[in-house]
Amino acid sequence: MSVREEFDDWATSGKDRGMEDRHWHTAKHVLARMPVEDGDAVLDLGTGSGYALRALRERGIGRGYGLDGAPEMTRNARSYTDDDAIGFLVGDFDDLPLADDSLDHIFSMEAFYYAADPHTTLQEVRRVLKSGGTFYCAVNFFEESESTHAWQENISIEMTLWSRAQYREAFREAGLYVAEQDAVPDRVIEIPDATAFPTEGYETREAMVDRYRTWGTLLTVGVAP
Amino acid sequence: MSVREEFDDWATSGKDRGMEDRHWHTAKHVLARMPVEDGDAVLDLGTGSGYALRALRERGIGRGYGLDGAPEMTRNARSYTDDDAIGFLVGDFDDLPLADDSLDHIFSMEAFYYAADPHTTLQEVRRVLKSGGTFYCAVNFFEESESTHAWQENISIEMTLWSRAQYREAFREAGLYVAEQDAVPDRVIEIPDATAFPTEGYETREAMVDRYRTWGTLLTVGVAP
Amino acid sequence: MKESLMDVVCCPLDKADLDLDVADRDEEEILDGTLTCTECGETYPIEDGIPNLLPPDMRDEAAA
Amino acid sequence: MKESLMDVVCCPLDKADLDLDVADRDEEEILDGTLTCTECGETYPIEDGIPNLLPPDMRDEAAA
Ligand SMILES: Nc1ncnc2c1ncn2[C@@H]1O[C@H](CSCC[C@H](N)C(=O)O)[C@@H](O)[C@H]1O
Ligand SMILES: Nc1ncnc2c1ncn2[C@@H]1O[C@H](CSCC[C@H](N)C(=O)O)[C@@H](O)[C@H]1O
Predict the structure, then answer these.
(1) CA of A9 to nearest chain B CA: how many angstroms apart?
(2) Of the candidates B32, B37, B223, which has its C-beta nearest A182's C-beta?
(3) Contact C42, C36 (CB under 8 A)
(4) Which residue out of B4, B13, B47, B137 has the highest number of ligand 2 atoms within 8 Å of its CB and is therefore the one to mutate?
(5) Which end of chain C is more exposed for a tag (fewer CB within 10 A), N or C?
(6) What residues are paired with C18 via a beta bridge?
(7) What is the ipTM for the molecules in this complex?
């Protein structure tokens, strides 16, 4: 199945809003760290419902562009805002339809690892960023967060499972400086008492604590030279 | 009074360890974000008891240098570790005795605003950092954290009171890219019930919540081109 | 899409500028039209206000 | 101070290299000595294993 087919289905079944709700637990902290200035142009890679751009507009960015490979995602996202400064486009991570040095910052939540070739995506990111621009790359699916590994079984697209060190190395290979790496915990999700386990998702309470509180979202911040 | 006199007193009266305990609440989160690699050389500006270098050595850095303007601070700091890879030196923020491009990263906690000329310090920071190196600048004393402003009354050295935006601007003026800015909350400090206020430090519970949970430590991350 | 989007978009294949052909628009934005690469001549549709700038093989494969 | 510190330190005034004069050392490090700027000739003391590389006016003012 293609990205388009898989995620168009998600969009039409309303999963885009469900992701927004869950991802917001950590995405809000990631977005808060971005050093955006009034008037900046920001790209959201794999925008889903487009919530990140709506939030960044409240901090004064000048333009927000939401790119997604699934047309139904962008169609929904467009219907969730009537902000003139937010626009959506359909495109692929590995062939960004954006001009060199055109963006101040790029944000991406739970999307990067779906790229057919993440190294190519990083080169594209570097190409479209202005000098000094940042790439805030946030993922919940990564080597150290073991209980996320099973997600691959439920999706037909091949997912890139990198470790923290692999993210840093790949950023540097693509010519980005690595400015930060952090595990951003999800403190919002409620974790039931030990007696409630095993649940559908977790064998033990420890596994669930590990997933949300210990690892949460892996943030890697790259800066374009 | 000079930096040396003021802080030598602090060191001999044991305030260095007290600061370590309190600052650790947020400094540990700041340190965790630094993208250090095995073998990196890291400078701690205004090192106090030197705790940041001890912590970073556990993450595999190759060399830690603690610089402080107060000889007694470095003397204490030296006595708190027998790690061969950690060294201390006495020096001033505005005339760093360190070679160009000699450091992978610089950390500084609750010290930067004591610089006689913070713009000069930032130029020095840029000079000594390798290309792609980061400056993790953490302060509790800043414009938005209003209850900290009174600290100036208790110290004879003039303190620089910048806002978040002023930090970003000054970093950029010095030629550093701004990769991140964040308020890192102190979640460890206990905040008593409303009935306990006014206390010695705070008129109201809200003021104390504002100081620790809302603002905490202001982190600005710069990257050298 | 707003016309201002033209400042940043380009052809996904060769990154050349695009020419805009408007088929339908309202006061605020372009609802239907075509973007044509000034270099390779490849065309990209704008539908319901959203430009589809997937590389043509991906766009066609998915539509099939 | 370890001898390896010489790789990174320099004169605070003109950033030139320093020459090391050892007065006392143990197996691991230099305990007492002098660092002399190869450019301006300014000297900086090493005391109890810690080099004092404050600019001379700050060092002297504080010691007064
Ligand atoms: N190769 C690719 N190119 C463009 N978009 C892609 C892609 N692979 C996945 N996506 C998009 O990435 C999104 C991942 S879901 C995450 C959506 C949103 N950022 C959120 O946090 O909720 C989906 O909308 C999917 O369509
Ligand atoms: N201009 C200057 N040059 C060098 N060190 C300075 C300085 N102004 C202040 N300092 C040092 O900065 C330190 C500030 S106190 C903070 C110490 C430590 N980083 C901690 O987090 O606990 C003091 O040790 C003081 O001596």
Answers:
(1) 35
(2) B32
(3) yes
(4) B47
(5) C
(6) C37
(7) 0.96
